[in-house]
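hey team, just a heads up i'm posting the complex here instead of the shared drive bc the drive is being weird again. everything in one block, sequence lines first with there labels, then the predicted structure for the whole assembly after. its two chains so it's a bit long, scroll down
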Amino acid sequence: MTVLTIATLTLREASRRRVLRSLAVLTVLLLTLSAWGFSRIDAEFGGLTSGEAKVAGSTVLNLVMFGYSLIAALGTAFLAGPSLAGEVESGIALAMMTRPIRRWTVLLGKWLGLVAFGSGFVAVAGVAQFLIVYLTVGYWPPHPVTGLLLLAGQTAALLTLGLLFATAISPMASGIVAVGLFGATWIAGVVGSVGEALGNPSVAQIGVVSRMLLPTDGLWRGAMNAFQDPALLAQIGTGVEESPFLSMAPLTPAYLTWAAIWTLLVLGLAALGFQRRDL
Amino acid sequence: MEAVTDSPAVWASHLRKRYRKRVAVDGVSFTVARGEVLGLLGPNGAGKTSVIKMMLGLVRPDAGEVMLLGRPNTDPRSRERVGYLPELFRYQPWLTADEVLALHVRLAGVTVSDRERRDGLGLVGLADRASDRVGGFSKGMQQRLGLAVALVARPELVVLDEPTSALDPLGRADVRDLLLSLKQRRVAVLLNSHLIGEVERVCDRVLILDRGRVAASGTLAELLGRRSLRLRLTSVNDEARSVLGSFEREDDLYTVDMPDDVPALVADLVEHGVRVHAVEPARATLEERLLDILRTHPEEHR
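-- predicted structure starts here --
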């Protein structure tokens, strides 16, 4: 009951603090730009075969989806800080936490609200983007639901980390640290891909380790794999492993399990940190 | 654990809290009986807010125990009938005043009708601002809202930490009336306030903290001592002095222990040729007593 109350409150906060409106404006802008871009692909390369159009559509789709994943992950990570640490700093938490509720229920409620917000954004923006790509270049991703779920998972992982930091440091710092780690993991993933392409196991290991420490990049790569055309890699050939917008293989069940465990572990740590914090 | 129904509203034992090297609270014990109004006094940094926060489970004590309304304060159910107005009062600026109350009602797990919520806002003078966002409220209005929040879930214990710090004189008078009505309804109140007059007027007992320790506690009568009588007299002769008994004198101002029959004493003095210019009851004010306690024994509390 408390969890749902707090989750609803978090969603209401997001909508009333104009986060939703800002996101909607940003998304419409990105959708419009991508619609224009995809229509140019179709116009400029009118002579493309259907296979070539698929390749172009598939690659550019991954690029645009990366933009949405950035907005969702960074947006929710920056929402997580004010939502928890901000309420503690401002004093809003004082009167609330003296109600007959347990602190972990408040944290779980906030987490659920933020996950719902991030996932909702990913779903709406993602489906709108798929429709634009389909209408302009006739490409529809092979596993859209899986891809969107993985993007939602990436958002959940990063905002959980943001919540953990928010139990210990200031709202702004928690957002910056979470986003910094997100960027570092993405870069480490690209470096790892280059290592794989060059056949250098040590460099490739960087990507593997970073994807274990923070699964956002791993989940993003899984999502890309779900969005891109299966025939794409075969058509382009070898030597594309280093591209940050192509994924060579789908995620393994073991990695997905690890990502879920990682998120729950970090959420558990956040609950413990919040429980022990003096308000 | 079941609540003990005849237990005090608050039972706190040997609370201790250290922030890094500084001891904020050092062995504070006290009780607040059901229906009692306890005033918490002390200089800045005496540990009053820390005691309140430990009591309500907001801050983890290094040592000590607290029972609220018969349950240990580690059990969230101990706070089912507790209302709290923090010193740092802030409420979700994106919600309306009525939505803030509705949120607290849901979190408290009680059923409160819309009308009762509106009445609560009316009680603190916010009836016509129920649908306005809190973000647009002045500090005083937010503190009034905080009072409504503290009272919305029909509390049996209300903890008010500086409840009038942002209020104008009219608001302060409203809070005083509110406190008196809580007292009438046998709601226990713990009041932390720098306004000593406010405390003196409404509190049954007072707890004075200094440097994290209890410097004094008791009823107002116990803390302020016996009442005395102050007389402005001239033409006082030896016979009249013997009528007065033991007294303190400062020019023509005589202070004696309050006699059982004041008119008889005055008649006696007049009979002995004394000219009586003024007669008034006198008692040390709480402010004088507080300053006396804090200034006289600063070392022993260190």
